[in-house]
Amino acid sequence: MPTSFNQDELEQLIEIVAAGIDDISLLSVPLLVPLFDAWISILSKQSMLLELPEKSTLVVGDIHGDLEHLKKAFKIKKNYSIEQIVFLGDIVDRGDKMIESVVYLMIEQIKNPDRVFYLRGNHESRAITEFYGFKNMCELLFDFEFYNSFIRGFEKLPLAAVLGEKVFLTHGGIPSEPINFNLMKFELKPPEILEGTYAEFVWNDPTESIDGLSKSIRWDQFSYFGKDIFNQFMEQHDLDMLIRSHEVYDDGYQWFFDNRLLSIYSSNAGIYSNVDPYYVLITKGSVVLIRAADF
Question: 250 with 275: CB under 8 angstroms?
């Protein structure tokens, strides 16, 4: 843990957020400054593509300000001695606990940087958070610099991870152009994710209805990818499975491509109150869907 970080401040903030604070204004900016510094220091040392060891891993999809289901994921991790946890992005926007959620995750990552991982989603973006509410909430309750501290962290988030050399984790999908993983590990992370090959990791979506690629309804520069494109990517990188989030399913998950791609959604915050949230546990080569409502 960084030597400049005050342990008393960390414990105080953990107590406030973990209690499910109702009045976010109880969080003070001076208390959060050392947290931001410690968090960004950790993220700055991570590459754009993480290589994670083959350990028991809980994978969490979109949270979107759903503090209840974020905290439940950590409870499951603790109660079942799961060794590491990976969030697939989109922690902010939509839900009413968006600030609490990202601060809670930030704290857990500072406490356990080798066991808690946070990948970038399409909402970990200055442009997207300006539109979907996170910026407004930060400025309403605090100020622009408070918001900008989060953006500095978002710009340092990894875009993807390979778990145990065989399972690929990312927020959205696979790029339309071939990717060199070795180069990706050494390139700088893009400050914004609205265009370009690497941005496709957080925006592209799978579909069973086409071969090849077709333009996304989300944005012209992004794509739907079919089974053939998926198989090429998996073969190129010798991967067995891909787990992603990014799309909402009422059942909380959806299988694609002969059950080699799994899409999960881990929130029912905001307008998605009808969703039945799921997580995924990966252990000893097995993949187990975990229904949040069962815990």
Answer: yes
Residue pLDDT, tens place only, 229-243 = 999 999 999 999 999
Helix H or strand E encompassing 233: helix 227-236
Task: Give the residues of the chain that fall short of pLDDT 70.
Answer: 1-6, 9-10, 12-14, 16-25
270 within some domain: yes
Helix (H) or strand (E) holding 40: helix 29-44
Catalytic residues: 123
CATH number at residue 137: 3.60.21.10
Domain of residue 53 covers 7-294
Q: What pLDDT, on a 0 to 100 scale, did the predictor assign at position 286?
A: 93
57, burial (CB in 10 Å: exposed 0-12, middle 13-18, buried 19+):
buried
How, if at all, do strands 261-264 and 286-291 pair?
A: unpaired
pLDDT tens digit string along 63-105? 999 999 999 999 999 999 999 999 999 999 999 899 989 999 9
